[in-house]
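Request: When convenient, would you put together a sequence paired with its structure tokens?
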Amino acid sequence: MKIKPSPKMKTIYMIYLTLAIALGVLPWAIPLTLFAPRLSLVVVYLPTLLTAIFVIFWTQKYYETVEFELDEDYVHSIRGVWWRRESRIPYYRVNDVILRQGPLQRMLGLANLDFHTAALGGRTRPEVTFFQLEAEKAEELRNEALKRIGILTGERRRAVEEQMLEELRRIRKLLEEGRGS
């Protein structure tokens, strides 16, 4: 199944851009404007505007390239505007699937899904990340991935435990009946 990130991905990137300008550029650009208005136009505002236009253009192009997939045997991710990056790991190598949300993601109802493997060399980063998914879709994909990996979700684990308990009760009953005869 092929998956695209939420269109809200573009919104969160625009929020990041706005915060970068508001917190990183304006605090020193405004005083510079008071002392050297022409210099600030050339040194600060024009490069900031060009950068913002580029980021807006790049965000749209980047969104179009991002694609995730849970196929029969692999977790697969493709992305990149100029340089394509593809990550693919087989389910048997996946040790953990983590659903992660930052504060802005929670506000927008987004989440990331990280697929971790047994790290070589102490690597703690996930091998593959499905990013900026709708939170409900991320939870659904997490459960599907855990099922394919063979890790039981809480609900499925309880069902299996109940089946095992029922089987043990039947065995106990048979043993008690055999002892009584």
Observations:
- The mean pLDDT is 90.
- Residues 56 and 127 are 28 Å apart (CA to CA).
